[in-house]
Amino acid sequence: MFKKILIANRGEIACRVIKSARKMGIQTVAVYSEADRNALHVDLADEAVCIGPAPSKESYLVMDKIIAACKQTGAEAVHPGYGFLSENEEFSRRLEDEGIVFIGPKHYSVGKMGDKIESKKLAMEAGVNTIPGYNDAIAGPDEAVEIARTIGYPVMIKASAGGGGKGLRVAYNDKEAHEGFASCVNEARNSFGDDRVFIEKFVVEPRHIEIQVLGDAHGNVVYLHERECSIQRRHQKVIEEAPSPFLDPATRKAMGEQAVALAKAVDYQSAGTVEFVVGADKSFYFLEMNTRLQVEHPVTEMITGLDLVEWMIRIAAGERLPFGQQEVRRDGWAI
Predict the structure, then answer these.
(1) What are the backbone dihedrals phi and psi of residue 159, each rounded to the nearest 5 degrees, phi first?
(2) Can you say whether residue 84 is alpha, beta or left, with left for phi > 0 and alpha for psi between -120 and 50 degrees?
(3) Which terms in the Gene Ontology molecular function aspect does this entry carry (predicted)?
């Protein structure tokens, strides 16, 4: 086990990592910008190193300064927290090159899951449900109708370069698909100078439900059930709860197993989250994978009794998960 770790973050998450490290008897190093000199995480850590001026691009995002702080203090590993460099493939690779352990997934797992198109291809290869769609060039409205029939109504017609709700139509039948395609192409050309349009299944009454996974370096991966985060504002999660009031045991198990299959496909070693969109009929489709600890991780800790930060550290130190899927408990409810 590590004797000393550095936390490449600040605020609540840095305090959270220090709490688990202290419980495990591991010394901690905080880093701070000049503006955060009197922050709580600096007080809580055993040592602290100033890494530059207030702007994060001159301090918390500068890899060289974090690596230098590790060498200066003798920290053997780095926990990135969330945000900042937590999902930066280059950062984890550079730490590895310097002989410092990154407390998180391997750089190749981060790279594969960070690319939206690549991750969707990998998901399909791993047998994970992805939103049915057609991403190639569509010749005209008649072909759009054929594709929509193949996918199954309702469908969403979207401009490739779209945004802000422009170049987006939902079609429930052939007539709407024909007209929607034509108007989408025109709107896309006028708004974005790019008339490429694609079609995908429209998920009715969608819910946003994510599965927490945990994998070690010995090929063991388990899912720690779900968190529902459908209540959002401007696509930002407002409320997270576990378990989801919507899922039944069969859907929960199927989603968990697909999340594990995806994690195994990229040799995932750490805590991670696989996000799904779930329809009113309980059909579910892969959205993306977050290759880090999430802000809302305590919701899962409350119902499973597992300390996710502790397990990230143990896995990074090469320990094997001592429990299988059957031993993962789900007690009570957390919000």
Answers:
(1) -75, 135
(2) left
(3) ATP binding; ligase activity; metal ion binding
- Same-domain check for residues 32 and 140: no
Q: Are 171 and 155 in contact (CB under 8 A)?
A: yes
Q: Are residues 137 and 121 in the same domain?
A: no
Residue 332 lies in a domain: no
Domain of residue 149: give its range. Answer: 133-201
**In this structure, are 125 and 227 located in the same domain?**
yes
Interval 233-291: pLDDT, tens: 877 889 999 999 999 999 999 999 999 999 999 999 999 999 999 999 999 999 899 99
In order of 17, 43, 104, 132, 296, the CA distances from 293 in angstroms are: 11, 23, 8, 29, 8
Helices (H), the chain: 11-23, 40-44, 63-73, 89-97, 107-114, 116-125, 141-151, 174-192, 249-265, 297-304, 308-316
On whether residue 50 sits in a domain, the answer given is yes
pTM: 0.87
Taking 70 as the pLDDT cut, the residues of the chain under it are 117, 162-165
Same domain, 66 and 181: no
Residue 10: inside a domain: yes
Number of structural domains found in the chain: 3
80 neighbors 9 (Cβ within 8 angstroms) = yes
Distance between CA atoms of residues 196 and 176, nearest Å = 18
Predicted pLDDT of residue 164: 66
Output the domain CATH number for residue 144. 3.30.1490.20
Options 146, 257, 275, 288, the catalytic residue: 288
The domain that contains 22 carries what CATH number? 3.40.50.20
Closest by alpha carbon to 254, among 277, 284, 281? Answer: 284
Other CB atoms within a 10 A radius of the CB of residue 274 amount to 29
Residues with Cβ within 8 Å of residue 197, at least 6 apart in sequence: 138, 144, 157, 158, 159, 160, 167, 181, 184, 185, 188
Calculate ∠ Cα 32-38-41, nearest 5°.
60
The answer to whether 79 touches 71, Cβ cutoff 8 Å, is: no
Residues 304 and 222 in one domain: yes
